[in-house]
Every structure is written in C-alpha cells, then in structure tokens.
Design goal:
This protein has 263 residues and is an alpha/beta fold. It is built from two helices and 14 strands; from the N terminus they run αβββββββαβββββββ. The strands form four sheets. Strands 1-2-3-4-5-6 form a six-stranded mixed β-sheet, with no helix packed on it. A three-stranded antiparallel β-sheet has the order 9-10-13, with no helix packed on it. Keywords: Disulfide bond, Leucine-rich repeat, Repeat, Signal.
C-alpha cells in the first residue's frame, strides 16, 4: 500500500472518529455558546437518555421528558459536563456512582422526579457543584434513618439549594408531606443481630434428639424486623418476645438476619 493511500485512509478514519464523537443525538438540538458545547433534548418525549453523548459536551438539558431510569455508566464519561438538567421526568433510578467522574459539574437538576432516596456521599466528589435542585413533592423521599444525612448536608452546605422546604417526605406515615430539613433529629441506632446458643447439656457436642435452643437477639431504632433464614432458602417470620429476642427449634436453621432495618 502506497504512503499516499495510507495517509488518505488515516485521514478518513480520523474524520469518522471526530464526527462520531461530536454527533448530535437524534431529536436533540446541538450548538456552541460561549465556547460551551450544548445539547438540548428538552420536551422531546424521550423515555431514555440518548446513547453516545459527545464526550466534550458541557451542558445537557433533558428536562420535561418521560425518562424513568438511567443505566450505570450512561453519563460517567462526560468529564467536561458542567450543567445537567434532568428535572421534570419520571426518574426512579439514577446512576449515582456516575457522578464520581463528573468533577466539573456545577449545576444538577433532579427536581420533579420520583426518587425515593439518595445514597450518602452521592455528591462528595462534585467539588465545583454550586447549584442543586431536589425540590417539589414529585420526589417521594422515604425519610428513614438512611436519609437523615441529606438533611444535615443541605443545612450545612454552601451550595445553592432552592426551595428547601419543598424537599418533602412521602414515608414513613408519621412524617408524610413534612419537609426533610425541618424533621427533628431521630435517635437512629444501627441494627445489631446476634445468635446465642443455649444447650441443655452445657457442652459443645450435639446429638440427634437433643435440645438446642438458638436465641436471636437484636437491637436498633427504629425496631428492626427479624427473620430466620433456613437451609431451604425460605424465610420464617418470628414472633417477637418481650426481651427483644425470638426462639425457634429447627435443625435446618442457617442464620438470623435483619430483614427490615429502616437504616
């Protein structure tokens, strides 16, 4: 192959790669504004985030669509992204780990969605984040112990978080429609589950027909629900005793687990 032909092929390949990396997603509008690369996919009735967003994009607007979930790694490569607007969708699942790569992000809008919870430290790597929107009751937050970190983070953050009183709870019932930031601090205690062995012979050897009592003791606030897990992989709910323990006589016992911990 001649050097001229090889150079021509390399030039064509370079052009193709350059074109694919900056191609505008179908049904979206793309333009440059003040050296920023903008992709506007708002109000397009989309049900998913367009695939293969250009890696050099700095602003993405996906507001007012029908997006219900975003798979992991969908936006993790957008390292130059500064503004991400996902407000007014139906988001129930969001790839929180993707945010760890978006260190240039300054504006994040997740308001008016259907998010129930946000994992702790979800925004810890967003050093340039200056504005965050989570408001309005479409996000049915479950204000269990798992979410109290968000209350303290909002109150102590220097980030602009408008309409904080509209970041409200859907569950539990006793805090329904209450503002997350106005909730009184709870006495949340991480659940602890242990199994104690009571043997009538007071030795470590057990024989067929002998009595072995395993007591599952637990603590936590709110009070967790405890179940026995047996070898058949079925679960048997136990009646709770006054001293916060539960007993079961069954030689197929495998372990005692906390199944509803609210933490």
């Amino acid at each position: 192959m001649s050097a001229t032909r090889l150079s021509f092929l390399l030039l064509c390949l370079s052009s193709i790669l350059s074109s694919s990396s900056s191609a505008c997603p179908h049904r979206c509008d793309c333009f440059d504004r003040s050296s920023r690369h903008v992709i506007d996919c708002s109000s397009k009735d989309l049900t998913e985030v367009p695939r293969f967003l250009p890696a050099n994009v700095t602003t993405v607007s996906l507001t007012a669509n029908q997006i219900g979930s975003i798979p992991a790694h969908t936006i993790s490569n957008l390292i130059y992204l500064r503004n991400l607007d996902l407000g007014h969708n139906r988001l129930k699942d969001f790839p929180w780990n993707d945010l760890q790569n978006l260190t240039s992000l300054q504006l994040l809008r997740l308001d008016n969605n259907e998010l129930k919870s946000i994992p702790q430290n979800a925004f810890s790597n967003l050093k340039h984040l200056s504005s965050l929107r989570l408001n309005n009751n479409n996000n049915p937050f479950a204000c269990t112990c798992y979410m109290y970190w968000l209350k303290h983070w909002i109150l102590n953050s220097n980030i602009d978080i408008p309409d904080q009183d509209l970041i409200t709870c859907a569950t539990p019932n006793n805090v329904e429609n209450e503002s997350l930031v106005n909730l009184t601090d709870s006495n949340c205690v991480r659940p602890i589950v242990t199994i104690n062995i009571e043997n009538e012979d007071q030795n470590e050897r057990f024989y067929e027909g002998s009595l072995l009592v395993l007591t599952c003791e637990y603590s936590g606030n709110p009070q967790p629900t405890v179940k026995w897990r047996i070898n058949s992989k079925k679960e048997l709910a136990l009646k709770l005793t006054e001293n916060n323990s539960a007993k079961m006589l069954d030689n197929s016992l495998k372990s005692c687990v906390c199944s509803t911990c609210f933490y």
